[in-house]
Amino acid sequence: MLAPPWLPVPPPGYGGTEVIVDRLARGVLAAGHEVLLWATGDSTCPVPRGHVFDHAVSHRIGEATIELRHLIRGYDVLREWGPDIVHDHTIVGPVYSQRFSDLPVVTTSHGPFNEELIELYRAVTPDVSLVAISEDQARRAGSVPITRVIHHGLDLESFPFGEGAGDENGEYFLFLGRMAPEKGAWHAATAARQVGARLLIAAKMREPLEHSFYSEEIQPLLDDTVVFLGEVGHDEKVRLLRGAKALLNPIRWPEPFGLVMVESLACGTPVIAFAVGSAPELVDHGLTGFLCEDVDSLAGLMSEVNSIDRRACRASADERFSTQRMVREHLSLYQTLVDARR
Fold first, then answer.
1. How far apart are CA 198 and CA 184, in angstroms?
2. Any idea what DSSP says for residue 18?
3. Which residues, at least 6 apart from 116, have a Cβ–Cβ distance to it below 8 Å?
4. 174 strand-pairing partners
5. Residue 256 · residue 133 · CB < 8 Å
6. CB of 301 within 8 A of CB of 272?
7. N- to C-terminal Cα separation, the chain
8. Is the confidence at residue 36, as pLDDT, over 90?
9. Band of the pLDDT at 62, cuts 50, 70, 90?
10. List of domains in the chain
11. How big is the CA angle at 159 (ends 157 and 164), to the nearest 5 degrees?
């Protein structure tokens, strides 16, 4: 299993791809298979691992030379190890893997299918099997053939149920994600101010564009009720989710999955999201949260969250988004691909 070189596996804070790689590697090992994870040296996923970079290269994220060095050495080591199948979670890896006709490769697209990515995958499929992480993402792949759609899964035991009781300062809504325009922090803050609700914003803010967006768009909206907490680790994230009345997730782009929505449901916390990307696949309108179109409707729905049964939110996560289900579906795919190759 090849992870990107930008964050350790699992990540200490923000990092959806690395969370999924961690859960998948652990799950496949627990199912009785041998696993070798190629990641970065500071990864702590408890499976056999290899690396070329001692530490995650987050300060050079997206640089082709970094990813290629990571991949070239990774594929050399994996070929020596002799896997039945390689699961590549990087961007460039599927192209590089074409050099090795003896390796069956499957890749998961963790990002949106833009023009560049569609062209890349068109060049490697059907030799490389492609997994989409939502039906919406698969529909956006155009002429690129999708082998299978597999929703993400979580270790649900690490997201215990909460009653939405708030904190020492009372009830609150929560925005959790990345400080970027497409994630919708401005829309969440504007809606909260419109109805006078308390909103806590926990968001990754490392890149220059994230800092500028915060300074120009978010900071002017902060006051005693709309509060920026910064980036949080797992334990603090879970505490915030368990105490929140609802997660506000007004995404403004076709997000391929949206792991934070599943994390929220697992804690019993309803989700109010814009109805774009994968959100309609993850949130059942009126049952586990609400789907809406703009800030005004978002603000209006904030007063309706008490009508949502938090136990139904947790039940939805248990039924649809467990690690066990995700691993089971991947193992079925691996077996199908290995059998076909034989």
1. 16
2. H
3. none
4. 200, 247
5. yes
6. yes
7. 21
8. yes
9. confident
10. 16-153+322-341 (3.40.50.2000), 156-320 (3.40.50.2000)
11. 135
Q: What is the mean pLDDT of residues 327-333?
A: 97
Helix axes 310-320, 259-266, angle to 10 degrees: 120
Nearest 5°: the CA angle 328, 331, 333 is 110
Q: What's the angle, vertex CA 306, arms to CA 303 and CA 312, rounded to 5?
A: 135
Q: Are 84 and 109 in contact (CB under 8 A)?
A: no
Q: What's the pLDDT tens digit per position in 91-138? A: 989 999 988 888 889 999 998 898 888 998 888 878 899 999 999 999
Q: How far apart are CA 303 and CA 317, in angstroms?
A: 23
Dmax of the chain from CA atoms?
Answer: 64
Decide: helix, strand or coil at residue 338.
helix
Pairing verdict, β 105-108 and 199-204: unpaired
pLDDT tens profile 279-321: 999 999 999 999 999 999 999 999 999 999 999 999 999 999 9
Burial 58-85 (b: 16+ CB within 10 A, else e): eeeeeeeebbbebbeebbeebeeeebeb
Helix, strand or coil, per DSSP, at residue 24: helix
Residue 7 has pLDDT above 90, yes or no: yes
For position 99, what pLDDT does the model report? 87
- Report pLDDT for 101: 83
Residue 21's nearest CA partner among 33, 36, 42, 41 is 36
Structure tokens at 280: 């309609």
Residue 186 carries which DSSP code?
A: H
Contacts (Cβ under 8 Å, ≥6 apart) of 218? 179, 185, 186, 189, 201, 228
Cα Rg for the chain, rounded, in angstroms?
20
Render pLDDT for 208-243 as a digit per residue (tens, 0 to 9): 999 999 999 999 999 999 999 999 989 999 999 999
Query: 3-state DSSP call for residue 249?
Result: strand
